[in-house]
């Protein structure tokens, strides 16, 4: 299994744990399984993450950090009066990139979110680990909507649904590959429909 050179041991362990969850399910994710996948001496993962809870916590924070880094790298900006079709296209490109490069993270996030109690701090961290509602509020405020908080909350729900559908929902059966024009068009159409309606409603 290839690992990016130069990454620290903790990151490698977290990435391996995510891969195990995505490929074999949450119950398969044990410290011993991570050691085996990385060909590390038994006990190596436990040295860095003493408990299962600590490892799950690291996974959640890793997904958050990746999302933040991706958003900053996207360079996505919104200004008042921007055309909703072009904005939808830019956001679709970002979502498509997430689907192309972070499928394992998305699957692991879903599996962990289902397992963790809804009142768990880790559940809250995972629930907000991919899409930022504050960033969405800023987007709709810049677009001039009267109720940016509601528009943002609904928009995040839409994005969550689009991603879920493509990863494990009905559209995961359609053979639509991330990184293709068809993939971007599918996402952009749904996003533009919402943006157009939101700008009319709010």
From TrEMBL:
InterPro entries: Homeodomain-like_sf (IPR009057), HTH_TetR (IPR001647), TetR_C_31 (IPR041583). This is TetR family transcriptional regulator. Signal peptide: none annotated. GO terms for molecular function: DNA binding. Residues 7-67 form the HTH tetR-type domain. Keywords: DNA-binding. The lineage of its organism: Bacteria, Bacillati, Actinomycetota, Actinomycetes, Mycobacteriales. PROSITE patterns: HTH_TETR_2.
């Amino acid at each position: 299994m290839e690992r990016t050179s130069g990454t620290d041991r903790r990151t490698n362990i977290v990435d391996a744990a995510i891969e195990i969850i995505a490929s074999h399910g949450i119950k398969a994710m044990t410290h011993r399984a991570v050691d085996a996948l990385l060909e590390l001496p038994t006990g190596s993962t436990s040295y860095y993450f003493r408990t299962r809870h600590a490892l799950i916590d690291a996974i959640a924070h890793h997904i958050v950090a990746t999302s933040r880094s991706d958003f900053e790298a996207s360079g996505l900006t919104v200004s008042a009066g921007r055309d909703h079709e072009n904005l939808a296209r830019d956001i679709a490109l970002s979502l498509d990139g997430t689907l192309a490069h972070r499928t394992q993270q998305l699957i692991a996030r879903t599996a962990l979110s289902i397992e963790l109690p809804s009142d768990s701090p880790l559940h809250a961290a995972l629930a907000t680990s991919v899409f930022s509602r504050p960033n969405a509020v800023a987007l709709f405020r810049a677009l001039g909507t009267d109720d940016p908080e509601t528009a943002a909350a609904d928009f995040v729900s839409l994005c969550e649904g689009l991603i879920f559908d493509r990863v494990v929902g009905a559209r995961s059966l359609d053979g639509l590959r991330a990184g293709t024009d068809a993939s971007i068009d599918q996402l952009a159409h749904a996003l533009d429909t919402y943006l157009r309606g939101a700008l009319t409603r709010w």
